[in-house]
Design brief:
The complex is a heterodimer of chains A (about 200) and B (about 180). With about 200 residues, chain A is an alpha/beta fold. Chain A is built from five helices and ten strands. Chain A has a single domain, classed as 3-Layer(aba) Sandwich (Glutaredoxin). Chain A has an eight-stranded mixed β-sheet, with helices on one face. Chain B starts with a helix and ends with a helix. Chain B has one domain: 3-Layer(aba) Sandwich (Glutaredoxin), CATH 3.40.30. Chain B is about 40% helix and about 20% strand. Chain B has six helices and seven strands. A six-stranded mixed β-sheet of chain B has the order 1-4-3-2-6-7. Classes of the chains: A alpha/beta (about 200), B alpha/beta (about 180). At the A-B interface, helix 1 and strand 10 of A face helix 1, strand 5 and strand 7 of B.
């Protein structure tokens, strides 16, 4: 096959890739795949509502619960009281709770107002331009990442197995994952899906 | 130099097959153990559907381009996209498009919440209300990876293969860009 013919075929390949492949691609094209359980969660550098910078690295040696949250999503709001109660329960156990708001259009002032009115006492970090959400492939609120003391992802997914936004489920996945890690065990299950609201990206 | 058309055609076919395997999000609607389609409620009304019923609904839609939209009244972007979906439904009522709106609002609210909402918003299409909200069961029924984030819209070609899994709000224009080439 001479070079002219090869270049002709390359054009066909290019044309095909440029037209067909993007069309058949799945949604959330900009988001990375979810990290695998047991792998390190990507670090972040995000400001909370008071302007204090938080990184995942600074919490090395602690269990970190990251909650992709929304002040508008009823499922996220439904989980809030339980997450706040859990954060208080484990305040002296070396467990850090952080909310992350990645929604486009949610201002720091509006989130602060929601948090104050609803007693959401742990820090909420503003993920500007949904960079962290993209880095971890986050799709839903609420969607929880529990990171072990070594910075590795130990649990990912639903807060509990509720089938309705305001009805508490009978399997408290996040509470069980924290208890398992504190006891030196791996969470089981380590992943669970949840209905919720899609993260509104820029 | 004589062009080698058969090789070119072969190359394109091979690429098409490979790309379809790589980029496809699933193998299309599950055929469903039960072949009887779920009873569709009248336009603008709501009726319960199980995960098995959803699979049957999709199996019965093969031969048409099929759009499945997961939504809920509690989900603001879902409510925001309803007028776009209503336009899409009306625009394609005469052609080979099957449109299935699947509500996550809970069957217990059909009479008290969902039906009044559909009437107030003059929603023109029928709404199936999921009686079984187990995400894994629903994912299996629609043969797609459902993350649980709403709204979500799945689009299948006439052969029943999933060609697009869309999360977040969708517009009439975006829907038509995907659906029209499949008709």
């Amino acid at each position: 096959m001479d070079m002219k013919r090869v270049s002709k075929y390359m054009w066909l390949v290019f044309l095909f890739c440029a037209t067909v492949v993007p069309f058949y691609g799945c949604a959330s094209e900009n988001a990375a795949a979810a990290p695998k359980i047991g792998n390190p969660l990507p670090d972040f550098e995000l400001k909370d509502l008071n302007g204090t910078v938080h990184t995942l690295k600074q919490y090395a040696g602690k269990i970190v619960v990251l909650e992709m949250c929304s002040m508008e999503c009823p499922w996220s709001k439904g989980a809030d009281p339980h997450l706040v109660a859990l954060s208080k329960k484990h305040a002296d156990d070396g467990v850090v709770f952080l909310g992350i708001d990645s929604h486009f259009g949610h201002t720091v002032e509006a989130i602060k107002d929601y948090a104050e009115k609803n007693g959401k006492s742990y820090p909420i970090l503003k993920d500007v331009d949904n960079k962290f959400a993209d880095a971890v492939g986050a799709k839903t609120t609420p969607e929880v990442y529990v990171v072990d003391k070594e910075g590795k992802l130990a649990y990912h997914g639903a807060f509990d197995n509720r089938q309705q936004e305001t009805q508490e489920g009978d399997k408290a996945y996040v509470a069980d994952a924290i208890a398992a890690l504190l006891a030196g065990n791996a969470p089981d299950p380590s992943e669970a899906k949840s209905w919720g609201c899609s993260i509104k990206r820029k | 130099m004589k062009p080698c058309y058969s090789r070119v055609v072969g190359c394109v076919c091979l690429l098409a097959a490979s790309a379809a395997m790589i980029t496809g999000c699933g193998d299309g609607p599950a055929s469903g153990e039960k072949t009887a389609p779920a009873a569709a409620p009248p336009p603008g009304e709501a009726a319960p559907v199980t995960a098995d019923g959803l699979a049957s609904l999709l199996a019965a839609s093969k031969g048409k381009v099929t759009v499945v939209n997961f939504w809920a009244i509690w989900c603001p972007p879902c409510v925001a996209e309803l007028p776009e979906l209503a336009k899409f439904y009306s625009e394609h009522s005469g052609d080979s498009v099957a449109f299935h709106a699947i509500s996550l609002d809970g069957v217990e609210g059909i009479e008290t919440v969902i039906t009044p909402f559909l009437k107030a918003k003059t929603v023109p299409f029928p709404v199936h209300v999921l009686a079984d909200r187990d995400i894994e069961a629903v994912s299996k029924a629609v043969n797609a990876e459902i993350s649980g984030a709403l709204p979500a819209t799945l689009i299948y070609n006439r052969q029943g293969d999933l060609v697009k899994s869309w999360e977040g709000g969708i517009t009439l224009e975006e829907l038509n860009q995907i659906v029209k080439p499949l008709l």
